[in-house]
Every structure is written in C-alpha cells, then in structure tokens.
Amino acid sequence: xxxxxxxxxxxxxxxxxxxxxxxxxxxxxxxxxxxxxxxxxxxxxxxxxxxxxxxxxxxxxxxxxxxxxxxxxxxxxxxxxxxxxxxxxxxxxxxxxxxxxxxxxxxxxxxxxxxxxxxxxxxxxxxxxxxxxxxxxxxxxxxxxxxxxxxxxxxxxxxxxxxxxxxxxxxxxxxxxxxxxxxxxxxxxxxxxxxxxxxxxxxxxxxxxxxxxxxxxxxxxxxxxxxxxxxxxxxxxxxxxxxxxxxxxxxxxxxxxxxxxxxxxxxxxxxxxxxxxxxxxxxxxxxxxxxxxxxxxxxxxxxxxxxxxxxxxxxxxxxxxxxxxxxxxxxxxxxxxxxxxx
Length: 342
Ligand code: SF4
Ligand code: SF4
Prior knowledge:
four-stranded antiparallel β-sheet, alpha+beta, binds iron/sulfur cluster, 21% strand, 2 domains
C-alpha cells in the first residue's frame, strides 16, 4: 500500500470514531506538566507533540500486575487471557523498538500465550518525535526512527501527517485517506533525518555494536562500586524502562487451602531481593553487583541473546527517575571508554 497523507482534522475524526465504537482506546495526554498514556475519552485530549511519557507503553503488553490462572489445589486449573481489543495511539519510535524487542522475548523459546494474546488484540499507532525530551539519546542508540512493528506510523509534517500503514489493520483505518505526494514524503524524510541526529542529549562515544566488547573487559572496573555507593536500590530505573520485562510469579491460596490464583507482577534487578532463591540465598546481594547487572543486560546480555544492537533504546527515563543521578547508561559507558581500549 502506498503511504498516505491525513490532515490533523481527519486524524481527530478517526480517533473520535474509534472512541465512539466502544473499543478501548488509549493515547498520550498531558498530566500536569508531564505526559502519560491513558484512556482517551475525547480526541481533543490526544497529544502527539509530547516529549516523553512518564511510563512507557510496556504496561499495555505486560501489565504491572496480571492474573495468569485460577486453580483448585491438587485439581484442575483455568488459564486467564486478556482478549480485550485495544488501540494505542502515540507510541514514539524508541518505545516501538522496545515493544518489538519484548515481542521477541515473549514469542521465542517458550511462547507466552498471555502476552501474545494481548498483543494480537492491539492496534498500534506510532508517531515520530516532534519535541525531544530533556534526556533522550535515541540517536546514539539507533532508535530515533522505526520501520516495523506498528500498524500506522504518523509523521507530523506541519499542516498534516504522513501515515505509513504496513498492516491490514492500519490500512483499514486509513482506507479513505489520500496518497502522500512526493513533496509530503520529502518533508517526512526531513523530520526523520533530523531526529536521527537531534534526539541526542547524551551522546555515546562509541558504536552500539562495540558495547558487548567494552563490557566484556569492564567487569571489575571501579565505576560499578563508585556509582552504586549512592544507589537506593529503589528499582525506579527498572520500572520506567521500556525494555525491562522481568516479573515475579506468585500463588495466592484461599483460606481453606482448596483453590487459588496465580499472578505475576513486575520485578526489577536493582531491588535487593530480585536474586533471592530457595534457602534465602541471594546471588546478587551487593548493590554494585545489581547496579552492574542492569547495564550488562542493556549493553551485552540481551543484545547477544536476541541478536539486536542494544537493549537500551535511549528514552532517557531512567536518568530522569533516578534521584541520586547515577542511572545514565551513556555516562557509565563513556566512563568505561575513557579507561578501556576496544
Ligand atoms: S536503560 Fe534507561 S534510557 Fe535505556 S531504555 Fe531503559 S529507561 Fe530508557
Ligand atoms: S533509580 Fe537510581 S537509585 Fe534507584 S535503583 Fe536505579 S540506579 Fe539505584
């Protein structure tokens, strides 16, 4: 399908139609002086000019808490799946790439049916960044623009949006839109080229492909101890991160011990008990071990497992969320680069 052009008025009408259909529609809205994803009740509330949302759209594919099944002790169990249709509007490219990564995690090896069921029922409308946030560094991570995963990608070209709809779901929503002209496509390319260099408040001093090799040599570097000395182990850097996907599973059994529910909730590798195992052994008890682990996950372990460039998409949320100001991945990688030869 050719790429379309849709006026701002037409987009507003489309959003209004989706809301009127009764299906769940969520999108980015102002929240005091910040922005957040939330239920849309009016197209006027949608803000595609936002800088960054407080929490990433990860909460829609992997809710902070979700019930997995109910069971009878020693008997049958019943899995629970979320089959509600959801249209999510306003996902930035770096968050879209994070969702693509999490899709890969939950679909390979053992497929997670709770995740994939929810994901199949989603329609994702992404948008290119209009306003860079104060801590974004997506340009350094190769995540300032995105080419897959969405149903529609909107690019603001001033008086209208250029709309790329590679899926049937996206094409169905844009069936009445006009084709974009060569001039529209040139404007879109200019926006994307600008973002590929300008979303870079914290430039990384190496290529992302070099990070695994850098970290291979950095396990005993003093930066882990130095930074972790002021870490509160609050886990905020994990909670706001669009690519963190760890969870804890818990069974709650009824008072008569006959039935129960199994649920899962977000976990975070910076939390003290994250690595606690049977016998109350904790294999990452020290703060600097936990602090180092997060940076190794983003720069080495997950990229090597998934065959991707980096598991940090440069959204900058951890930098904003960390009270002692130690969570910036680029700050740490650049410190290592000063001391370690690649
Ligand atoms: S590590 Fe920080 S900057 Fe990177 S994706 Fe996670 S929250 Fe965003
Ligand atoms: S947000 Fe900062 S203080 Fe909190 S766990 Fe992460 S690095 Fe430590």
